[in-house]
Amino acid sequence: MGDDSEWMKLPVDQKCEHKVWKARLNGYEEALKLFQRIEDEKSPEWGKYLGLIKKFVTDSNVVAQLKGLEAALAFIENAHVAGKTTGEVVSGVVTKVFNQPKARAKELGMDICLMYIEMEKGEVVQEELLKGLENKNPKIVVACIETLRRALSEFGSKIVTLKPVVKILSKQFESREKAVRDEVKLLSVEIYKWIRDALRPPLQNINSVQLKELEEEWAKLPSSPPKQTRFLRSQQDLKAKFEHHQAQGEPSDGEDEADTVAAVDAYELLEAVDILSKMPKDFYDKIEAKKWQERKEALEAIETLIKNPKLENGDYGDLVRALKKVVGKDANVMLVTLAAKCLAALASGLRKKFGTYAGQVVPTILEKFKEKKPLVVQALQEAIDAIFLTTTLQNLSEDILAVMDNKNPSIKQQTSLFLARSFRHCTHTTLPKSVLKPFCAALVKQVNDSAPEVRDAAFEALGTAMKVVGEKAVNPFLSDLDKLKLEKIKESADKVELAGKKGAGGEKKPAAKAPPPAEAPTKCSAPPRKAQAAASKSSAVPSKKGKPASTAGGKSKKAPESKDVIETELSAEACEEKAAGVLPASCMQQLDSANWKERLACMEEFQRAVETMDKADMPCQALVRMLAKKPGWKETNFQVMQMKLHIVALIAQRGQFSKTSASVVLDGLVDKVGDVKCGGNAKEGLTAIGVACSLPWTAEQVVSIAFAQKNPKNQAETLNWLDNAMKEFGFAGINVKGFINNVKTALGASNPAVRTAAITLLGVMYLYMGAPLRMFFEDEKPALLSQIDVQFEKMQGQSPPAPIRFTKKSASAEDEEGDEAEEQEEDVGGGGGAIDIIDLLPRTDICDKITSDLVSKIGDKNWKIRKEGLDETAAIISEAKFITTNIGDLPLALKARLSDSNKILVQQTLTILQQLAAAMGPGLKQHVKTPGMPIITVLGDSKVNVRAAAMSTLQAWVEQTGMKEWLEGEDLSEELKRENPFLRQEVLGWLAEKLLTLRTVPADLMLCVPLLYTCLEDRNGDVRKKAQDALPTFMMQLGHDKMDKAAGKLKAASRDLVVAMLEKARAVMPDKPAAAAKAGGGKGSAEPSRAASASRQPAGEDSVDSKPEVKKIRGGAATKKTPSPPKEPVPSPPSKDKDSNANKKPPSKGKAAASSQQGPAGKKPAAKTQKDEEDKSGPIFVLIPNAKEQRIKEEKQLKILKWNFNTPRDEYLEQLKAQMSTCFAKWLQDELFHFDFQRQVKAIGVMIERMESESDATISCLDLILKWFTLRFFDTNTTVLMKVLEYLKLLFAMLNREDYHLTEYEANSFVPYLILKVGEPKDGVRKDVRGILAMLCKVYPASKVFPFLMEGTKSKNSKQRAECLEELGCLIEGYGMNVCQPTPAKSLKEIAVHIGDRDTSVRNAALNTVVAVYNVSGDQVYKLIGNLSEKDMSMLEERIKRSAKKAAAASVKPSAAERTQREPPANPNATFRRKPAQEDPNKLNQARQNAQHSESSHPSIPKEFQLDLDMIEMDQSRVCELPDLVQHKLDGLLEPIKIPEPKMRSVSPHYDDLHNSTASTINFVISQVASGDINNSIQALAQIDEVLRQQDKAEVMSGHIDQFLIATFMQLRLIYSTHMADDRLDKRDIIKLYSCIIGNMLSLFSIESLAREASMGVLKDLMHGLITMMLDARVEDICDGQQVIRSVNLMVTRVLEKSDQTNMISALLVLLQDSLATTTPPLFSELVMKCLWRMIRFLPESINTINLDRILLDVHLFMKAFPKEKLKQLKSDVPHRTLKTLLHTLCKLTGAKILDHLSMIENRNESELEAHLRRVVKHSGNLSGQKSDRGNEKSGLRTEDRMSKGNVSDILSEIFKKIGSKENTKEGLTELYEYKQNYSDADLEPFLKNTSQFFQSYVERGLRMIESEREGKARIQTSTVIPQHGVDFSVSSNCEELKPAVYYERLKILRQRQGLENTSRQGVGGGEDEPQQRPPISSLLSSKPAVASSTDMLHSKLSQLKESRELYQQEHNPHSHSPTQPRSASPAANLDDLKKRLEKIKSKKQ
Questions:
Q1: I need a labelling partner for 328 at 20 to 30 A (CA). Which of 442, 1301, 1591, 2041 fits?
Q2: Half-sphere exposure (CA, 13 Å, Cβ side) for 606?
Q3: What is the pTM of this model?
């Protein structure tokens, strides 16, 4: 009992898993009570038991298990989370409960399973139960089958998927256990109740006894279908309905029953059989055998295989072709019958998959109907009927119509009967008018056929059509039939029984009923009765085809309404009798009077009679016949004729004028239309007839009559009348095809008036038809075509006028016509009567040209023959232009070529398929499956160009066919099954794009969903990305529920991932595209709906009205998930104005909005909206204490990613979202991360409005806000960017007011990205960014902004570099040199590098910045910027001089300067600086003061401008006056700071504009340089040469140099490989081309700025091309070839000299490496090395401009590829020597410093290069590599460390002894000089400090003498130009000036000793940190004075000897302290001291 008391105290959930069974039992009992008590299904209490429920049902104790089952059932029934446990619990029930002996346990287990099914988990339950059937325990199997039976009985076949259940029946019938067999028998009976005969085929193979028993049981079942008695949770409405019926004892709806019966198709339950692998191997040989018996054997073997009711999908093309050949060509009718049966079975077994082959087989079968033997005909009928079910009537229409005119009556009869049978399977939706119209036209012809069987078949077909689509739809097409025939058609219609009403055809009924729900959204704007008509739209082939017919049909439909509309022709007597009844007797008598006056009087009476006559009583035909009575239309008197014509118009206007009446008068009217006097009346009559009988009919009659005559005047005037009539009536219904033939006749007329009238008429037709009209006239003569084009151009841009005349109708006819027009409009997609030109084009049948020889050619083994076949095919198609759909076996032949191993042929095939698409038009639909689908396979090709060609072909096909055919069937899903990443990403991208535009999709798209989910987890990132992009569009078409259900079938891990993605996709799911704006009818009805939808439009859509359709839809979809949902009652305060304005716009998607609002939302969305609205009214930022500090801490501890990236990755995005979620309002965060940019703009607007009111919260979230803005800097949307910049300006202004300073953390995560935008191409953006940077300096130290800008100057974007340099100049001006970080020297050196930039604006900006430094620090700038090239230095000096002049001019005119300060410049780019007002005034004043001082000739500060700080510190009264005094004194000095002159700055934008305007032209010309046509290339080169030769124009080539050089060496390759080998080409042309290329190169490389733009890779290829050309023996053989080679030599020299030296050396190294690695001629490598030697010679000049790091990296890579051992193994040792020479020269020129340039080499310690360099440095005495500052002394110390101190001491002691002795003094000095060369860092101080000053001077003089002697010898020996790094910056590049410089140096030393030299002006040596006292002895020991000044290079030794020098000076020159003493101290120290003292003054003042 003690134990009991322990577990009794435990909580319930712990009891349930206790080891004691009693505890568990007690736990289960308590849990059961608890579960029954909890009312809230979402209570957290349920979560505790989620992991325990499986233990409840699998308890090992039987008693406890029983109670556990009860508790589990209660949990599942009540808990919302129970669904998560389905799999494990049902599995436990199957394995641990169903095997229990207790019936109660088994019953509870079944209840649990059924409860899970009720919770929508049926699929999981069913899966587990089916797994249980494989258990060896028969009890479990029986229980599983029984559970399945109960589930089916209660839930029905819609919930329980029967296909997997039916599959297992046969196996279970074979079980040894009788209990299993009995239970499966009961299950089969239950299944039969639901699907009836569909169950028979799958059970045909079971034991005959069992089958007999089953049949008996089935026979006992009631005929009424079963009903669902238990319902899912989502079916509660059905449950209520069912209970209501049960309570009242009423039967349920018949429709539901019908649906239930048809729920399962027998075909779906069958297993597919693969017959292709089982086919006899000799089948194709036998089927071609000459003996009919062998052919029969082959067919019988196939027939046996094909009898399987369901066949596996595969390539049946060859089999179908073989069977088709037998049907079409075999003479043995028995074999024809057998083949037809095989085709029927094949079509039945494959169903929709056979649709691919239908188009090939149907024409053959229809032709074969000429056979009269009943057996053959019956087999053919069965075959074609089976084939019809695999495709659509629309796809077969052209083939059927083609044989309807066949002369053989049997073919016509059987085709009509086939149509009748086909119509029975159609519905109003699947038989639209566009398809029905041509069939009816053909059948109407057959109704009048002479053969009675043909007529009867036609009646039956028309009757069936009438039954299917209704009398109203068919009648327009039967207008020409008499009553008798119409009645016969109606009789046939009454006899017809449609397939949908038969039991066998039950499966068709759901298809008929499906469209209305799919089209539900359209019902909100269209009358309900039009739903089906609207649904038919999706299957209409040509979108505008049916319009003419509907209009014409509308007129003819008056037949039942009025006899006058279609009236029979009256005899002359009848006419006279009727006319006499309404006309006066005198009138009748005088009609044919010989006296014209009597006839005139008669006509007047006639007119009066007509005017007074009632419409109903007017016998129009009789009256017009009277007018035609002799003399009739031959009337000679024009007055009488005018009256007659006027009366005709009156009769037509006032009476019920029929076409019969019109036929009587039209001849006469047309005859008089060209008459000068009567023409106007004739045209009036024609117009009146047009109103009465419709213009299309009248125009057709009139034109045909006119062109039957030979009178050109009549023809011209007829066309003129028609021209005007079209404008008045509009174009609707015009028979364009008929007109075009007559217009072509008119265009060919000899009379110019007729031609002119025809061209004018074409112009009017062009208004309505557009550019495609021209296609009809492309064969006309060029002169005529140009006239037509001129007419078309006149009409371009004009819109057709609104019609002012309309055809009149009777009231009832108008109603019908209204309906008709509406239906038609829906059919054609609201085309408004536009004509589809494609349907009117005359098409050529090319079937005869697609011969078997051509097909065999295309399939030949030899690729050349295959190519010939393809070429022929392309020629056939292009010659035919427009073709019919009948192209024989071409589709299959092309399909085979798409998988050709030769990719060129694949691309050619794709091109042909594109041709085919354009030539065939919409008829291409029937070929989608054969050559269409394989195009998708090609998308998996590894080559980009092949994939691109395939995609463009696919797009061309889809443009013609639409998407429906591509999505039907399993073909697309089969393609996606291929595990090819290229194919998957291309197809998914294509689907994502196309699905957006579709309103409905075939159900087969669902087959692609599992594969889409697979792609979401694909190993390829691109595939995953494309799959994610496609997810929202799939969901848009299929719905979230279906997608979610499909995800439920995945494995658990995949399922979780996919479900999460589905939720994300749901948030951005776009709306389906709404129908085009055709709501309800005309404009009148469209306006109200638009207004209504506008008033209801959600706020989320307001902002996207200006975007394209798809974007709008996205925006609309997003409103469902974002905080701007539909039906928002009051817009949020921030966006109130915008919303109200947006609502005023008439949105184009009113319908979509309305339909989305009418969804099953109920009341929930409204509540949600209200909640969101409340959220929006609250604060947008949440102020969380220390949150920012915590984020900073986490980033420092690396707990989160540091905000540092080149482009933002997803992880950064997710991290930012997570951080923002805590302190941003939810709705604001959603808006900020919304995919629609306008929503982001709106959110920024809200942030701007709330900035002031929530300033503290904004500052607390500042780091996150700035991070979000950095993401926007990577967007390309300018609207967002401008809004972001607007916010940032306001933000920094607010931060400044709040006196807030940015932290390092905030600045580092924002400023670098802001600087990216300073290089934006748009001026407005750059201006804003500059403004923000200026404001940034007020909240963040300028010295810390400086490094960010320095980093920005390294950008590849020239605009960014220029802007950053300008900003640096502004900072230096505003804040002085202290702002330069890390040191002024380092910063200035980096800035000065840009003076040599290739971009003008960058050069100018760099110069301006250096000038700004000059203004602040004077001549010191020359020391700070380091060594510059001569060119750069001259530019800088020139700029400084000009700035000094400007300053002088400005000082004369201070008023102008003041004015300039007050008024900012009009062009912000025209001046260097911004307004000084933006900077700190005190710092600016300091900058101006420094600038003024720097302009004086003397470097020290004049007394009047000095601050006496000692006095100020003592006297506080002066401090107050100080700012005024300084401000007053220096206001006039603003002008001098305006350095560089405005003129220079204004050049840049002008140049940019010029460059941009010419860039496209230059690109085009350069592209022609590489042309295969020599003449084109020469012309292009000539144009470029012209530009390069003109200095003022040459700059436009900047930025195009690489492009030009690439084109040049491509042309060189082309010459080498093609032109030189082509004997047909004149070699003089090649020489001419070579000359042009060489001339261009010489011009280009004479312009240094352009030459330096060539990149390394391009130079490598260029040098390769030039050297190859030099070695080409063929060139030498040509006349003038030697001259070309010499020119190339010269050009190579020029290229080497003028190119960027770094790039050239790198290029040559890589070229040498490649040449050694490959089998190039030895001479090639030799020439490359010669080029390298020449470059080595240039090194002394270029050593300071080259990038050593890059060159050493290339050398390292060379040595890695060719180690020392490998180089030595080469035949020649020259490469090895070349490399050594290069490295030795570099070491010689740079010394030990070269070891600091290995930064780009990874694992440098392992590099052979470093070891080599160390050896060279060690043994070299070169001192030029030493650095001039202490920071880099380490390299020098390395050598020192290696030398033992003892050795050094001994050697130097020995040398100094020699110097001290008289005999050896010269020898000693020489040895000391050489020793110093070898050991540059040896310390001489210990040996010198104890000696006298005289001895030191003696040593110094001796060393100088040796140095000068050796220097003179060196100068004589070398012929190379030595760079100008002399002892002073003023020394020029001439070598001769070096010698005087040495003497000048000696003189300077003497002057210093006597105190005559001003030590503050140092021209040599001396660092920034100390003054120049006198040169030390060691300064004379430079081994290479020509390379760098000795004092500069040995600066480190100055510091060591400093003390002794100062001591000596003080002893010998005690008065050397001058007023300039402060300058001799370190400037930095002085500055620090000055700052401290100023700070002290400032603190006292405060």
A1: 442
A2: 31
A3: 0.41
